[in-house]
Amino acid sequence: MKDIDAKVLSSDVLAEGLIRIILHAPEIACEAKPGQFIHMLVPDNAHVLRRPISLMAMDAAAGTLTLAIQPKGRGTQMICSLKEGDTVKCLGPLGAGFDGKGAQTIYFVGGGVGVAPICGAMDGFATESSCAFFGFRTKNHVYGMTQAPCRVVAVSDDGSIGERALVTKPLLEAIEQKRPDLIMACGPTPMLAAVQKIANDMDIPCQLSLEERMGCGIGACLGCNVKINLPDGTWTYKRVCKDGPVFDSKEVAFGG
Ligand SMILES: Cc1cc2nc3c(=O)[nH]c(=O)nc-3n(C[C@H](O)[C@H](O)[C@H](O)COP(=O)(O)OP(=O)(O)OC[C@H]3O[C@@H](n4cnc5c(N)ncnc54)[C@H](O)[C@@H]3O)c2cc1C
Ligand code: FES
Question: Domain holding 131: CATH number?
Answer without folding.
Answer: 3.40.50.80
